[in-house]
Automatic annotation (TrEMBL), chain A:
InterPro entries (UniProt xref): ABC_transp_permease
Places the protein is found: Cell membrane
Protein name listed in UniProt: Monosaccharide-transporting ATPase
Membrane topology value: Multi-pass membrane protein
Residue ranges of the TM segments: 48-66, 78-97, 104-122, 128-150, 157-175, 207-225, 255-274, 294-323, 335-355
CDD domains registered for this protein in UniProt: TM_PBP1_transp_AraH_like
Pfam families, per the entry: BPD_transp_2 (PF02653)
Molecular function per GO: transmembrane transporter activity
A single Gene Ontology CC term: plasma membrane
Primary site of residence: membrane
Sorted UniProt keywords: Cell membrane, Membrane, Transmembrane, Transmembrane helix
Automatic annotation (TrEMBL), chain B:
PROSITE patterns: ABC_TRANSPORTER_2
Name of the protein described by the UniProt record: Sugar ABC transporter ATP-binding protein
PANTHER family per the UniProt record, alphabetical: CARBOHYDRATE TRANSPORT ATP-BINDING PROTEIN MG119-RELATED, SUGAR ABC TRANSPORTER ATP-BINDING PROTEIN
Keywords per UniProt: ATP-binding, Nucleotide-binding
Lineage: superkingdom: Bacteria
Gene3D superfamilies according to UniProt: P-loop containing nucleotide triphosphate hydrolases
One annotated GO molecular function: ATP hydrolysis activity
Residue ranges annotated for the ABC transporter domain, each copy included: 7-251
Listed CDD domains: ABC_Carb_Monos_I
Length: 360, 259
C-alpha cells in the first residue's frame, strides 16, 4: 500500500488562498530587528558580556577615584587572593544554579571538609594526603546527599540545602568540638594542608597557589560545560527538564552528578580555605553561601537555569572584590560596600529578566 | 496479510488506579505508510503512544517491532530500536543551538584521546551532520546552525524536531500533534515535511486532532475509542464527519473496518 502515492484530497479549500501569500515558509530569518532587540539578543547569547563590561568599568572607576594605590599590582593581586574562596565555591554554585537549583550549603560543606582535614591530620595521626582525600570524600558525600534529596526524594533544592546547611554546620561544630586548630600546629604536623596558601611573586604581584588553582578550576569546568556531553546535558536539564528527559537525557543522573561534583568542589574550597587563613576554624567561611550566590548572579548566570557560564561567575566574584577593595581604599564606610553589592545583585537579576523576556 | 507490520501491539492494558487508560488496545503500522491515530480527548491515545515509545510500561499485552517481541523499559530503549518520537512539546532545549539539540543525548565525541579521555565533543562533525539532515528536508535556509532554538519560530522548531527524528529514526517516526501549535502556512510546510519523510521510506504514526490534515496525508486512520482500537478506516472511503461521528461514538464503524 505504500509505494504508489494514493489519490488524496488536495490541500483543503480554505488553504487555497495561500497560493497568493508568500511561499517562503520555513525560512530562518525574521523581520529586521530594532537596535534594542539586537542588543538584547547579543547580550543574551553572550551572557558574560555585561559582567565583563561592569568589571572593566569598576576597574576604570576606581583607578580614577583611588588612582595609584588601586592599580598597584600588589593590590590587584590581593583582590584575586580575596576572591579565591568565593571563586571556587562559585564554580560549585554555578553548576547547581545552571540546573535551576540552588545550593545554600556550599559554605557549610567547605568548613566541614576543612575541619575533617585538620582534625585527621593534626592530632589524628592520619598522613596529610589521606586526610585531604578524606575531606574531599566527605565533601562529595555531602553533595551527593543534597543530590539524592533533590533528585529522588524530589524536594525543592532551596529547602534541601537550607536544611543540610544547618545539618552540615552542626556536624562541623560537633566534630571540631568548636575548637580552632592553630596555624603553627598545621605547619609543623601537616604542611600539605596549607599548600594553597603558598605564594609566588610575579614582580610586585603576589599570587597564591589557591588563586592559580581557582583559575584552573574555572578553566576545567568551563571546558566540561561547553565541550562535553555532560555539560550540554546540564544546560538542557536546567533549561527544560521534561524536554531533556524526552530527548533521551538521564536527567536524574545528570542532577546527581552536578550536586556530587559541587560537593567535591566545596571540599577543594575547604582545602584552599586552610591555605587562605592558615588555621582551621569551625567558624570560618560563614558568608560563603551567600557570597557564592552573589558571584553567580552578578556573573550573569540565570537563577532560572539553563543560561550562564563559569567565566561569568569568576568575573562576578572579581566585580565584588573590586568594588569592596576600591570602596575600602576610597575611605568609604564599610556599610557602603554591602550597599553596593546589594544594588549589583538586583541590577544583575533585573537584566536577566529582561533578557529572558527578549526570547520567550 | 503477508506483510509483517513494522510496529504491532496486541491486547495492551494499562490501569492507573481505577482508571483504565488502555483496555486491550491493538495497533498495526505497515511499512511505508502514514497511519493517523485519532480519538476523542481521554480515549487513551497518549497512553497507547507512550507504551509504543517506552514512556509507559503496559500492564499486559505485547508489542512487536518487525515481528519480534520487544519490551521497552524507557524511551531510550525504544529509540535505540529505531523508534523516534516528535513530542507535542518538541523536547527541544531553547537555550541550546540547533546542532546541540539535534544531538542532545547522543552527542558525538572527538576521535582519539581528546574524545576518549577528555570526552571532547566533535562540534564540527555534529554541525556538519545537522546541516546535511536539515538540507535533506529542504530546511536549509537556516543561515547559522549554531543559532539558538529559542530564536526560531514555532514552525522552524517543529522542523528541527522532525529533522532530528528523521535523522535518527531508522524504523518508525511518531509525531504527536505536529501542527497543533502552528499557523496555516507553517502547518502546510510541516505537512510537506511529513510527506518528505515518508518518501524516505519511513513509516509514520501521526496523532492529530486536525481532520483536514489527517485526511490529507494519512493512508489509514486508526480510530481510538474508550481505551482501545475502535476501527481502522480508509480516508478515501469515508468522510471527515463520519470519522468524527465514529470517534465520538455517534455512529458505528463500517462493518468491514471494525477491529
Amino acid at each position: 500500500m505504500s509505494t504508489n502515492e494514493p489519490a488524496r484530497p488536495a490541500a483543503a479549500d480554505y488553504e487555497k488562498a495561500l497560493v497568493r501569500s508568500d511561499q517562503r515558509v520555513a525560512e530562518f530569518e525574521e523581520d529586521a530587528p530594532t537596535p534594542l532587540m539586537r542588543l538584547q539578543r547579543m547580550l543574551h547569547s553572550q551572557p558574560t558580556l555585561i559582567p565583563g563590561i561592569v568589571l572593566l568599568l569598576g576597574v576604570l572607576m576606581f583607578s580614577v577615584i583611588v588612582g595609584e594605590r588601586f592599580l598597584d599590582p600588589f593590590n590587584l593581586s590581593l583582590i584575586v587572593q580575596q576572591v579565591t574562596i568565593i571563586g571556587i565555591l562559585g564554580v560549585a554554585q554555578t553548576i547547581v544554579v545552571l540546573t535551576a537549583g540552588i545550593d545554600l550549603s556550599v559554605g557549610a560543606i567547605m568548613v566541614l571538609t576543612s575541619v575533617v582535614m585538620g582534625k585527621l591530620a593534626v592530632g589524628g595521626g592520619v598522613p596529610a594526603p589521606l586526610a585531604v582525600s578524606a575531606g574531599l570524600i566527605v565533601g562529595m558525600v555531602c553533595g551527593w546527599i543534597n543530590g539524592v534529596l533533590v533528585t529522588y526524594v524530589r524536594l525543592p533544592p532551596f529547602i534541601v540545602t537550607l536544611g543540610t546547611w544547618s545539618v552540615f554546620f552542626a556536624l562541623n561544630l560537633w566534630y571540631s568540638e568548636s575548637e580552632t586548630i592553630r596555624a603553627q600546629d598545621i605547619e609543623t604536623e601537616a604542611p600539605l594542608l596549607q599548600f594553597f596558601g603558598t605564594a609566588v611573586d610575579l614582580g610586585q604581584a603576589r599570587l597564591t597557589f589557591g588563586s592559580i588553582f581557582m583559575l584552573l578550576l574555572c578553566l576545567l569546568f568551563g571546558y566540561m560545560l561547553n565541550r562535553t556531553a555532560w555539560g550540554r546535558h546540564v544546560f538542557a536539564v536546567g533549561d527544560d527538564p521534561d524536554s531533556a528527559r524526552l530527548a533521551g537525557i538521564r536527567t536524574e543522573r545528570t542532577l546527581l552528578s552536578v550536586y556530587s561534583l559541587a560537593g567535591l568542589v566545596c571540599g577543594l574550597a575547604g582545602w584552599a580555605l586552610i591555605g587562605r587563613i592558615g588555621s582551621v576554624s569551625p567558624q570560618a567561611g560563614q558568608t560563603g553561601n551567600l557570597d557564592s550566590i552573589t558571584a553567580v548572579v552578578i556573573g550573569g548566570t540565570s537563577l532560572f537555569g539553563g543560561r550562564g557560564a563559569i567565566l561569568g561567575t569568576l568575573i562576578g566574584a572579581l566585580i565584588v572584590g573590586v568594588f569592596r577593595n576600591g570602596l575600602a581604599l576610597s575611605g568609604v564606610n564599610v556599610l557602603w560596600q554591602e550597599f553596593t553589592v546589594g544594588i549589583l545583585i538586583i541590577v544583575a537579576v533585573a537584566i536577566d529578566q529582561w533578557l529572558r523576556k527578549a526570547t520567550s | 496479510m503477508s506483510v509483517v507490520p513494522v510496529l504491532q501491539a496486541r491486547g495492551l492494558v494499562k490501569r492507573w488506579g481505577r482508571v483504565t487508560a488502555m483496555d486491550h488496545a491493538d495497533f498495526d503500522l505497515m511499512p511505508g505508510e502514514i497511519l493517523a491515530v485519532i480519538g476523542d480527548n481521554g480515549a487513551g491515545k497518549s497512553t497507547l503512544i507512550k507504551a509504543l515509545t517506552g514512556a509507559v510500561l503496559p500492564d499486559h499485552g505485547e508489542i512487536r517491532l518487525d515481528g519480534k517481541v520487544v519490551n521497552f523499559a524507557s524511551p531510550q530503549e525504544a529509540r535505540a530500536a529505531g523508534i523516534e518520537t516528535v513530542y507535542q512539546n518538541l523536547a527541544l532545549s531553547p537555550a541550546l543551538s540547533i546542532a546541540d539539540n539535534m544531538f542532545l543525548g547522543r552527542e558525538i565525541r572527538r576521535k582519539g584521546p581528546l574524545g576518549d579521555w577528555l570526552r571532547m565533543l566533535d562540534k564540527a562533525e555534529m554541525q556538519r551532520i545537522a546541516r546535511q539532515k536539515l538540507s535533506e528536508l529542504g530546511l536549509m535556509t537556516i543561515q547559522n546552525i549554531g543559532q539558538l532554538v529559542e530564536t526560531l519560530s514555532g514552525g522552524q522548531r517543529q522542523g528541527v524536531a522532525i529533522a532530528r527524528a528523521a535523522a535518527f529514526g531508522s524504523r518508525v517516526i511518531i509525531m504527536d500533534e505536529p501542527t497543533a501549535a502552528l499557523g496555516v502556512k507553517e502547518s502546510r510546510r510541516v505537512l510537506d515535511l511529513i510527506n518528505d519523510v515518508r518518501r524516505k521510506g519511513l513509516p509514520i504514526v501521526l496523532i492529530s486532532h486536525n481532520m483536514p490534515h489527517v485526511f490529507e496525508v494519512a493512508d489509514r486512520i486508526h480510530i481510538h475509542r474508550l481505551g482501545r482500537r475502535h476501527c481502522v478506516v480508509d480516508p478515501k472511503a469515508i468522510s471527515m464527519s463520519d470519522a468524527v461521528a465514529i470517534m465520538t461514538g455517534a455512529a458505528e464503524p463500517p462493518a468491514a473496518a471494525a477491529a
